[in-house]
Specification:
Blueprint lengths: L1 H19 L3 H17 L1 H5 L2 E3 L11 H7 L4 E8 L2 E6 L5 E3 L5 E3 L12 E4 L3 E2 L5 E2 L5 H6 L5 E5 L20 E3 L4 E3 L3
Parallel strand pairs: 1-2, 1-6, 6-9, 9-10
Antiparallel strand pairs: 2-3, 4-5, 7-8, 10-11
Amino acid sequence: MQEKIMEKRELRRKIKQLRLMLSEAEKLSAAEEVFNQLEKNAAFMLADKILMYHSLPDELSTIAFLEKWSKMKKFFLPRVNGVNLDILPYDRSRLELGAFHIEEPQGDDLINPEEIELIVVPAVAYDRNGNRLGRGKGFYDRLLATTKATKIGVGYDFQLVDGLPAEEHDVPVDYVITQRTVIKVKR
C-alpha cells in the first residue's frame, strides 16, 4: 500500500512538471484538439445533461468549450461540499472562487447525480484501461460511484500512461481522450 502511495505521488509530480513546461499557445491548442474529439463522441452528441469541470490553470481549459456549447447543452459544474461534490447548473454569471481556488457555481439548485448523462472527468493521469489518477482527495471517485453516466476522461497526451496503480474504490472512465488518442475502454 505504501508503495502505491509513493508511485502515485511521484507520478503526480512528474505530470505537474510536464504541465508547467507548456506554453499558453500549447495549452490552448491541446484543449481545442481534445474538445474537438469530444464533440465527435456519440455519448456527447446524445447527452443533454453534462457534468463538466471548471479548469484549473494546469488542466485542459474548459472555458471556450463551455461557452461554445452552453446554449445547446445543459451543463453542470461540481462544487465542493465537505468531502463530496454537489452538482449545480453552469451559469457563467454565478461562478465564484471556491475550494482549492476553483471557480464553482453558487446557489442551492442542486441536482441529483443520477440525472447526469455524461461526465467529463479531469485527472492527473489515465491509462488505457480507464483507470485515473486524481489529485488524491477522492472527490470524483465518490461522485462517480453514485452515477451510471458515461464517463469521459480528458487530458494532454503525456497524461496517458501505462498501468496506473488502481485501488478498489477507484472508478474508471469509459473513454479517454487526448490530443492524438481516443480510447473506448473495454470491460
